[in-house]
């Protein structure tokens, strides 16, 4: 029976089966890396002319097939997880599953390096090498929602953008600051070089306010998708169309699509212009050296490195087709360390909720908030058995309410919710 056709299993058996699927994916990834490494050696032994011909006629299709062979099992794993754990408010922690996920994550980065090195080390011209790269690396079937403190504060700052709540102008320079009383860090908005280029005019506080006004809940979700993608893959090239779909925008009218793509581009530039500044109150120690880690953030969580416009002269030229993104320096140094960069839930599950109506946008906001709250309260959670079918659920020692939590929704009436996080695998 296919993995996605299995009936709902008891939680312990579902976790056991998930571990089996991850072990199979780990073994398969090793095999694909071995295959790609052999092909790199074979192509490297060819003459320059033969290598160029081989790359153009054969390797690109082989590479795509290898990528599909990795992505297809991940699709099945994602479907299995969605079905098996949908009725459980929290997926139990399993050390073996965590270790398998981390190892597969590292192997994925190694495989990407091998696949692209075959092209990057080729005798092809830079133009030909670039033409062989796909238009965007695509999005995986699932992405964990990031719940670490810097991501949480960035989300609150973006959601406060339309109302300008807690935003203040910086005297003497074109910048704004968002701060929350009692929080050890703040978010600064200072236009990046790419945002300045987009404006094509002198920077002003009015321009900054205009960008913040267009932020709100869609910008929060977009930031979550982009940061999670960067923490999973490192540097990434992705199309604006994929990001538009990833935040639940599915309209098809050409003028609306263009406006939405332009807004996605502006929101990316906005997030890339917002460093999170401050130091966490908590003390963390390096597991290997046992030394105290100085967790001081001064960087944006993502950086827009470049763009590629569409080759079709009939397409609009005011926005790029693809964008090259990179993780900010602070989160990049801790990439893979889930004790510091915590996560919870699946942000792409929320993105699949159509956001064309207020109810859909609010549902996305509530999902982001609940994931954040569940992750923050996980230390005080206990597993309970409820209902006639004795299914498992999570209970907290201190139930939480909507009061005193950040607003992650735009529009009126405002929706009070709790903050920012996928199923931990």
Describe this structure in words.
With 425 residues, the protein is an alpha+beta fold. It has two domains: 3-132; 144-363, no CATH class. It contains 13 helices and 14 strands. The chain has helices at residues 11-44, 48-84, 95-120, 126-132, 149-159, 193-199, 205-213, 217-233, 240-246, 254-271, 329-333, 347-351, 358-376, and strands at 144-146, 167-169, 176-179, 185-189, 236-239, 276-279, 284-285, 292-293, 296-297, 302-308, 322-327, 343-346, 381-386, 391-396. The protein has a five-stranded antiparallel β-sheet with strand order 2-3-4-6-9, covered by helices on one side. A three-stranded antiparallel β-sheet has the order 5-11-10. It has a two-stranded antiparallel sheet with strand order 1-12. Strand 7 and strand 8 form a beta hairpin. Helix 1 (11-44) runs antiparallel to helix 2, helix 5 (149-159) packs antiparallel against helix 8 (217-233) and helix 9 packs across helix 10. The longest helix has 37 residues, at 48-84. The chain is globular, with a radius of gyration of 23 Å. The two termini are 22 Å apart.
- Counting H and I runs of at least 4 residues, what is the number of helices? 13
Number of domains: 2
- Span from first to last CA? 22 Å
Task: Identify the overall geometry.
Answer: globular
> Approximately what portion of the residues adopt beta-strand conformation?
5-15%
Estimated helix fraction: 40-55%
**H-E order:** HHHHEHEEEHHHEHHEEEEEEHEHHEE
Largest sheet: 5 strands, antiparallel
Number of DSSP strand runs = 14
What is the spatial order of strands in the main beta sheet?
2-3-4-6-9
How would you classify the helix and strand content by structural class? alpha+beta
Uncertain spans, ≥5 residues at pLDDT below 50? 1-5, 86-90, 129-135, 311-316, 410-425
Mean pLDDT: 77
Radius of gyration: 23 Å
């Amino acid at each position: 029976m296919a993995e996605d056709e299995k009936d709902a299993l008891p939680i312990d058996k579902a976790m056991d089966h998930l571990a089996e699927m991850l072990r199979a994916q780990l073994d398969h990834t090793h095999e694909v890396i071995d295959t790609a490494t052999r092909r790199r050696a074979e192509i490297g032994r060819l003459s320059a002319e033969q290598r160029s011909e081989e790359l153009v006629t054969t390797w690109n299709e082989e590479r795509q097939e290898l990528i599909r062979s990795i992505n297809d099992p991940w699709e099945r794993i994602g479907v299995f997880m969605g079905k098996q754990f949908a009725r459980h408010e929290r997926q139990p922690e399993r050390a073996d599953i965590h270790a398998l996920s981390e190892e597969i994550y590292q192997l994925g980065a190694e495989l990407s390096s091998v696949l692209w090195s075959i092209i990057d080390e080729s005798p092809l011209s830079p133009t030909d090498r670039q033409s062989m790269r796909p238009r965007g690396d695509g999005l995986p079937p699932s992405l964990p929602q990031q719940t670490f403190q810097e991501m949480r504060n960035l989300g609150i700052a973006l959601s406060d953008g339309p109302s300008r709540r807690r935003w203040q102008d910086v005297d003497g320079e074109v910048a704004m600051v968002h701060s929350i009383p009692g929080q050890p860090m703040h978010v600064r908005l200072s236009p990046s070089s790419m945002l300045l280029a987009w404006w094509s005019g002198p920077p002003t506080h009015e321009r900054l306010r205009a960008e913040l006004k267009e932020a709100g809940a869609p910008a929060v979700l977009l930031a979550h998708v982009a940061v999670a993608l960067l923490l999973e893959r490192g540097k990434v090239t992705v199309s604006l169309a994929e990001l538009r779909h990833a935040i639940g925008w599915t309209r098809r009218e050409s003028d609306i699509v263009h406006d939405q793509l332009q807004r996605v581009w502006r929101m990316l530039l906005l997030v890339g212009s917002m460093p999170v500044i401050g130091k966490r109150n908590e003390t963390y120690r390096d597991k290997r050296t046992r030394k105290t880690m100085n967790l001081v953030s001064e960087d944006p969580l993502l950086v827009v490195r470049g763009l590629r416009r569409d080759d079709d002269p009939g397409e609009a030229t005011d926005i790029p087709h693809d964008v090259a993104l990179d993780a900010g320096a602070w989160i990049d140094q801790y990439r893979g360390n889930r004790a510091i960069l915590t996560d919870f839930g699946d942000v792409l599950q929320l993105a699949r909720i159509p956001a064309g109506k207020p109810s859909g946008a609010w549902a996305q906001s509530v999902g982001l908030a609940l994931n954040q709250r569940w992750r923050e309260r996980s230390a005080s959670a206990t597993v309970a058995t409820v209902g006639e079918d004795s299914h498992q659920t999570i209970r907290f020692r201190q139930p939480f309410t909507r009061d005193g939590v950040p607003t992650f929704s735009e529009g009126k009436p405002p929706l009070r919710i709790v903050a920012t996080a996928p199923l931990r695998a």
